[in-house]
Amino acid sequence: MEKLSIFENIEIKSKEEVSAINNDAEISSKNEYEKIIANSNETKEKMLNNANKNALGLVNQKKNEYDLIEKQFVNKVQREVLDSIEVEVVKTLMDMKKEKLTDLICDLIKKEDVKGDEVILVSKKDYPKYQEALSSSKGALVEADLINKRINTKFKLSNEAADIKNGFILVGNDYDLSFEYNNLVESALETFEKELSEYLFG
């Protein structure tokens, strides 16, 4: 076998080293590329997950906002319905006359703890119909005989005008009792609002 010169050996050795370097570089480059691709895929997956989370969060936020608006609207409508009922009930009470008004006054008074000798006051505009419903007499201060004989009391009706919108007041020596229809109906609706809402709105 022909002996190679030192320069030829150096050239061969150099080529081998260059080839080895190229192979290492190729392997390293390939590994780096695969790492970059893996990192890129991981980044994309994270970005996609974050995007999905953000989208889901936005959907839930909008849903909560819609639910709140819907609840506020329903509550507003229900409140308006209850307010309209209050207005209608008060109007019905205000329209009562004669025997129906007498019955109403007796029913309201019987629910309260009264002495039975109080004076009944009403507004100036309502006095004529209350006088007709409560007493068979006319005058500045008359016996409310039409209810006294029914509930065993000694009430009197005065023509002194009370500063009220509707209903009547029992004026006693110790305290007064107000039977203004607006307050009575409002109190009743507050007491039975839950039951009434379930009945009306399910």
Task: Please provide a written account of the structure.
- This protein has six helices and five strands.
- The chain has a five-stranded mixed beta sheet.
- The chain starts with 5 loop residues before the first helix and ends with a helix.
- 13% of the residues are buried.
- It has 202 residues and is of the alpha+beta class.
- Helix 1 (6-94) packs across helix 5 (181-191), helix 2 (98-110) packs across helix 3 (127-134) and helix 2 crosses helix 4.
- It has helices spanning 6-94, 98-110, 127-134, 145-151, 181-191, 193-201, and strands at residues 119-122, 141-143, 156-161, 168-171, 176-179.
- Strand 4 and strand 5 (176-179) form a beta hairpin.
- Helices cover 68% and strands 10% of the residues.
Which key terms come to mind for this protein?
202 residues, alpha+beta, 68% helix
Quick recap of the structure?
The protein is α+β, with helices and mostly antiparallel strands. Helix 1 crosses helix 5, helix 2 packs across helix 3 and helix 2 (98-110) packs across helix 4. It has helices at residues 6-94, 98-110, 127-134, 145-151, 181-191, 193-201, and strands at residues 119-122, 141-143, 156-161, 168-171, 176-179.
